[in-house]
Amino acid sequence: DSSPTVPLIFVLSPGVDPTSQPQGLSDRIGRNLKTLALGQGQAPLATRLITDQAKTGGWVFLANCHLMLSWLPKLEKLIEDLPAQKPHENFRLWLSSTPHPKFPIAILQKGIKMTTEPPTGLKSNLYRLYNLLSDEQYNAPKFAELYRPLLFCLCFYHSILLERRKFGNLGMSIPYDFNDSDFEVSENILQLYIDELQEHAVSAVPWDTIKYLIAEASYGGRVTDDWDRRVLKVYSDQYFHEDSLTVAQRKLSSHEDYLIPSVDGTLISFKEYIQTLPVNDPPEAFGQHSNADIASQIASSNMLLETLITMNATLLRASSGGSKHQQENDGKEDSANKVEDRVYALAQDMEERLPEQIDVNAVQESKAEEATALVTVLIQEIVRYNKLLAKVALSLASLKKGIKGLIIMNEDLDDVFQCLADGKVPSQWLTSYPSLKPLASWNRDLLARVEQLSSWGLGSQPKVFWLSGFTYPTGFLKALQQQAARNAKVSIDKFGWEFIVLPSEDKTITQSPKEGAYIRGMFLEGAGWDNDKGCVCEPNPMELISQMPLIHFKPVEAKKKTKGTYTAPCYMYPLRTGTRERPSFVIGVELHSGACEPEHWVKRGTALLLATDT
């Protein structure tokens, strides 16, 4: 179906690089292919390639068009002018780009669009990776008996990292686009170090070097989150181990089907074993709990519902945007009025429930004798919440006037209207602290946050702190360390934390601790908590998030991590990446790992949350 004047467009998918496909086709049919990865300063070269190859009948492949959006209108003009130039009949123009709203529609409409969906599932990924290997490449290493089991481990490692994406936050904090180039580089590293061995001995394999180059350099080079890098390291320590060469049919996961096969060593024998693996991946293959599958399915369902709600909101805006005469004719006026009435009533109710701003001067007078770091944090938090309360009050008052027709509804008010109609929190209200809660839960949460600060500011210091109630929890924790450092007359840089999980409830606490603070309201994701043994445990079925007991955050001089302790990253809210302006990570909390090794919980993606999305 292709022709010299019709571009062929690859729509890129995560983890797929189509560069080899036009290259292989051009080699088979004898075409001269010129490939250019677009980027800054490549526009003149790209233009010259198209002009020259159109005359000679060669092919041009412009990769990553989304990285030069400013030049694409000129590319659109070049493609429009191709019929007038009467290019050579063998000329073909190949393009690749990720989906982007600014990609010229005219190019998409004229071109032939193709996409390569990455295979899903461990079985499909393993089989695809083995299909990339030629017999020459597979049989090239000097010590094949050492290379082939480790090659299978590498393929399994690559497949595991790709498929962990489906678990969302429990898989990786950030979804990385690992691709075939990462695998090819790692395979070259593996082959190189096996070939350099002086003897056929397992003890001679440089395990630390191989693990570092694969997990930290090759794959780890894409990883920007330290906790995600920990996941890569745990898997590499398990797979690239001498047991992979000495233990027959060594298991690569807790699931019995995933192991290093004891086959005759040929390429086809490994492919035959891969075909026996389950089509649907059990969560145990990744070291995950069955709850992770449930969480993944809930996330997919929520995404579908969000899309439907967005489409419905678009239709609603269309129905309320026409003239009154048009609405009467279409029978939509009553529907639009009902929505406006509902939003007005909601705004009225929120305005009535909205607390008064806290009197900062009264708080400063009340705490005049307490010149501590905690009081400084208290004043700063009150100022931030007062600004938020003022912003919410102004938005609600203006929205009510806008609905009545007393003022013009600008873009900000329209956003508030649509969010209230959909039960969402307007983005302009989320500047003080991030949240994924729906509007009703966010409103109750805001009242509780203001109540904690008001009670503390105009009364006594709380015996138990609700860490989630602070806009900047790290500031509160740093203030605790600062107080401890001043009392001990030691530099604050020398202080770390000791975390003591208390079995008692906050109602039974009668006084504050001598050092640090009691913290309540934290949640455990990806695991459960055993109150009797005081350690992390397996969660109950369908228990996606567990409530944590009180935790005593005690500032202590930095000490070594004790054995059998899992460091759980603590995040402000379920979106672990946060934003560029407000990272979600707060602190790493050490918890007893119980009967399982800490690595078990690393694979589970176990973490603490200060707030949920409900």
Instruction: Classify the oligomer.
Output: single chain
Apparent shape: globular
What proportion strand?
5-15%
- Overall mean pLDDT stands at 92
Euclidean distance between termini CA atoms? 51 Å
What structural class do you assign from the helix and strand content? alpha/beta
Spans of at least 5 consecutive residues with low confidence: 321-329
Total strands: the figure is 16
Give a verbal description of the structure.
The protein has helices at 20-29, 43-56, 72-85, 105-110, 122-131, 135-139, 144-163, 180-195, 207-218, 226-239, 243-246, 267-274, 290-321, 324-330, 333-353, 360-366, 373-404, 411-422, 439-458, 473-488, 598-604; strands spanning 8-11, 33-37, 59-63, 92-97, 112-115, 464-466, 495-501, 517-520, 523-525, 528-530, 535-537, 545-547, 551-557, 565-571, 585-592, 607-609. It is an alpha/beta fold. Helix 2 links the parallel strand 2 and strand 3. It is globular. The two termini are 51 Å apart.
Q: What structural keywords apply?
A:
614 residues, 21 helices, five-stranded mixed β-sheet, single chain, alpha/beta
Task: Describe the structure in brief.
With 614 residues, the protein is α/β, with parallel strands linked by helices. It has helices at residues 20-29, 43-56, 72-85, 105-110, 122-131, 135-139, 144-163, 180-195, 207-218, 226-239, 243-246, 267-274, 290-321, 324-330, 333-353, 360-366, 373-404, 411-422, 439-458, 473-488, 598-604, and strands at residues 8-11, 33-37, 59-63, 92-97, 112-115, 464-466, 495-501, 517-520, 523-525, 528-530, 535-537, 545-547, 551-557, 565-571, 585-592, 607-609.
